[in-house]
Design brief:
The chain has 304 residues and is α/β, with parallel strands linked by helices. The protein is built from nine helices and 14 strands. The chain is elongated.
Length: 304
């Protein structure tokens, strides 16, 4: 047997001698009492409790200490090897975290609506591995492919607009990064879900990156976040507690959904475009992706 904290056994060296000393003292006291007193006096001293009961109580206390010490040492059994097999889809979420995702044309704002929708999306999954790449002017692997949906949802809750320092929207670079991750880590059935509110402003052209994904047989489902009318971007509060909004060159910034590029990306890779004007649309996305991916898997099996 192995132990996680063998230092706990040091208690035996510290407290063990004390137990032995007190046990010896109790034994001496009881022996002298039985030798030098008669029964009526002993009954008055012990209140009707017999010496064997006193000894038994102290033995139980000693045993409790030993069990406590063993528990504190955290005993480990022999390691058990298990294999877990998953047969679902590998899904890489590409999540726009630029400042415009804080716009309020969707209530309460774009980012909150997306986070709520993705959380529901994850709740619908079973056996599918999920990863997250966040991006603005650059990209970052927020969560590698995993079936630990609790960890995925915790990562989703941590997402905030402007969480990456570099501004802009690097859609093409992020798609390419997602392809590379799926090539290295994923199985045969692989998709990406691109969630953004605008067109590419830096890096590789999204259409070029989409063609790379298509060559690797990776479909991209795109989700446009926002409305054509657009919305203002909250930017803190003034000294009186009033909401302030982002200003550029003396005017309030109104960010509008530009989904033409997102539609082209979905078309190139054989995916589908959705417009997110309500977090409930994720239920339709889950249904559509499950149906489309199931049909694609059956088609591959028939070809083989």
């Amino acid at each position: 047997m192995r132990f996680g904290s063998e230092e706990a056994f040091l208690l035996a060296w510290i407290l063990g001698p004390l137990f032995i000393y007190f046990a010896y003292r109790i034994f001496r006291v009881l022996r002298n009492l039985y030798r030098h007193t008669d029964r009526p006096i002993r009954e008055k001293l012990f209140g009707g409790v017999s010496a064997p009961l006193i000894i038994t109580r102290n033995i139980l206390l000693a045993a409790a200490f030993v069990f406590f010490m063993i528990a504190a040492a955290r005993p480990w059994g022999s390691p058990v090897k298990t294999e877990m097999h998953y047969s679902g889809i590998d899904i890489m979420l590409l999540m726009d975290v630029s400042g415009s995702m804080g716009a309020i044309d969707i209530k309460p704002n774009r980012m909150t609506a997306v986070k709520s929708g993705i959380s529901r999306f994850v709740d619908e999954l079973y056996g599918d591995r999920v990863g997250i790449i966040v991006f603005s002017g650059t990209y970052f692997l927020q969560c590698p492919l995993t079936v630990d949906y609790g960890a995925v949802k915790m990562m989703i809750e941590s997402l905030q607009p402007d969480m990456l320092e570099k501004g802009g929207t690097a859609v093409g670079d992020t798609i390419k990064a997602g392809v590379e991750r799926l090539k290295k880590k994923a199985g045969e059935s692989r998709i990406m879900i691109l969630i953004s509110d605008g067109e590419n402003t830096t890096g590789m052209a999204p259409e070029e990156a989409a063609r790379i994904a298509a060559k690797e047989d990776i479909r991209i489902y795109t989700i446009g976040v926002g409305t054509p009318e657009g919305g203002r971007i909250p930017e803190g509060r003034d000294v009186w507690g009033r909401q302030m909004f982002k200003i550029y060159q003396g005017r309030e910034v109104i960010t509008k959904l530009d989904d033409a590029e997102l539609k082209r990306i979905a078309s190139i890779t054989g995916g589908k475009y959705y417009r997110l004007d309500d977090s409930r649309v994720f239920r339709d996305i889950v249904r559509d992706i499950s149906r489309m991916e199931e049909n694609e898997t059956r088609k591959r099996e028939h070809i083989r």
